[in-house]
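Allow me, if you will, to draw on your knowledge of protein folds for a short while. A protein sequence and the structure tokens that stand for its backbone fold form the material at issue. I would ask you to consider whether the tokens describe a fold that such a sequence might reasonably adopt. Thank you for your consideration; the sequence and its tokens are set out here:
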Amino acid sequence: MKVYKTISIVTTGLLLWCMLFHFPEPAEAQNRVRILQSDQLEGIVTEEGRIRKLTGNVSLQTNDFAILCDSAWHYMDIEELRAWGNIEITTDREQIWSDKARYDLVSEVALFEGRVIMQSENVLLFSEEVFYSFVTEIALFPERLRLEDDRGVLVADSGYYYNALDSAIFRGNVQVADTLQYIEADSMFTKRGDEYYELHGRVYLDDEENRTRLTGAFVLSDSTGYRRVEGGSRMRRISEDLSDTTFLWADWLEVQQKDTISTFTAYENVHIWTESYSSLSDTSHYDDNLQHFILEGSPRLWYDEMQLTGPFIHIQLEEDSVRYLESYKRAFAVQRDTSLDRLNQITGDTLFIRFDDGSVSYMQVYPAGNVLYFVKDSDGTADGAIEMTADFIKLDFEDGELGDVIARRNVDGTFYEERPGIADRRIGGFVWEPEKRPQRPLEPIEPRLPPVPLERPFEPPSRFSTDR
């Protein structure tokens, strides 16, 4: 089993928490509060020391930002600034709006409350409570938050946003609805600008452009189109003409998407179900460009009344329908004759099965071919069986019924008359396990959360504007 080491989102969160509330050593130069404008200024002394009370059209400047608000109190002895009403803060890298703010002039950490909006580059963040460090440029959102950018919207119950690196951690009912995909997860680490995501817990990903849905316990996705799904991965993919649906589930899965072409490889306990065939294997590889599946590791494949087994199975598709099957290194195929309820069998080093219009056209096996097929009389009644060995054997079918049998080189055959027990005759290597055939999953691959709201969580403050 292949094991990947992933960064713990909990460890990363604790690290960011320490960075956010790291108090630097006292600076030689004091973080000053400069009054640029105020309709009224009053100085008072309380148990907390000297306070400058500013009221009406307040405009202040600190080492970190410029602030506009309705009123502010500067606690001079405890180095704290508190502001209320229609707050707007401007720095070189961001703008912040809120109803209430509390700023520690020593640690340079602020608490914003009420209707809080943060703008950085092309990102807007909305919440009702935000801690922000102007030193580390890390924002902590203990309450529900909403992120908007030019690609779409992200919402979560809480999170961290690291402004300097445009990266973030989100926790609790995380949802992303953007131009590329829809995502749900319990937690997420992301660099949205780089289109990089690490998704943890009850992950659901819907790629509408490529008609693919994925679920799992962990998903990694990056800008190259690469995705890795771990922890009981499931995938649903709809064909380009919307006529066929493929379900795949496995222990883990890798997908590579480029433009409209995709490839994927599924590992361990791989189940595939489509309307026409199903399979089990240890590994399954699909190439959209070549339109084929490769099954390895004791695979089994079922198509209508046929089962194919072998160490390697190649499924070639044409317009999402099976064109041919190929298996080698002692492949074995069993086809149930429904009219007789008997099992025709064919084996050999390499087995090739051709399909036309969804039905078997012919089978051929080479070398060391061995065939057992049951015959019927003109009335359709069972009439014994023929077993044959040869270097090359071909079975032609018409409307799903066995027709001609062609054998070449070193041909040897035996006819068995109809008698009790003849229906149970088997040739070496026989495998018939219809009870293991994967069925269409009953549990749908669908989102568990309601859609991301189109509207923002609150009306913005009157000073709010994205024009810098």
User: Anything to note?
Assistant: Residues 1-29 have pLDDT under 50 and may be disordered.
